[in-house]
Design brief:
11 strands, 5-stranded mixed sheet, 6-stranded antiparallel sheet, mainly beta, about 100 residues
Length: about 100
């Protein structure tokens, strides 16, 4: 990924380079971004990149738990500047520098 992905989470703003990905979203202690409250799975999604394009991938039986701009993510979705990922009370804002 040539441009850093900048995400805003409840824990603050994070700049992510290619070497920082994938980022795991979920409820277990090993998740890079923790989802507050009860969640159906330890890891519900991944943020990664392919050919310099960032994407969000829902994992396993948790498809539809994550949304981008209010639309449920059932499999994989490319991310664009300004996209907002949500799951319950979790809100992640995505920006590119």
């Amino acid at each position: 990924m040539t441009r850093p992905l900048v995400i805003g989470t409840p824990a603050g703003v994070r700049r992510l380079a290619s070497t920082d990905l994938p980022i795991r979203i979920g409820s277990d202690a090993g998740a890079d971004i923790r989802v507050p409250g009860p969640v159906t799975g330890a890891v519900i999604g991944l943020i990664s990149h392919l050919d310099d394009r960032p994407f969000l991938q829902a994992t396993g039986a948790n498809a539809g738990t994550l949304s981008v701009n209010g639309e449920p993510v059932a499999a994989t979705r490319w991310l664009a500047d300004g996209d907002v990922i949500t799951s319950g009370a979790l809100r992640i804002e995505c920006h590119f520098d």
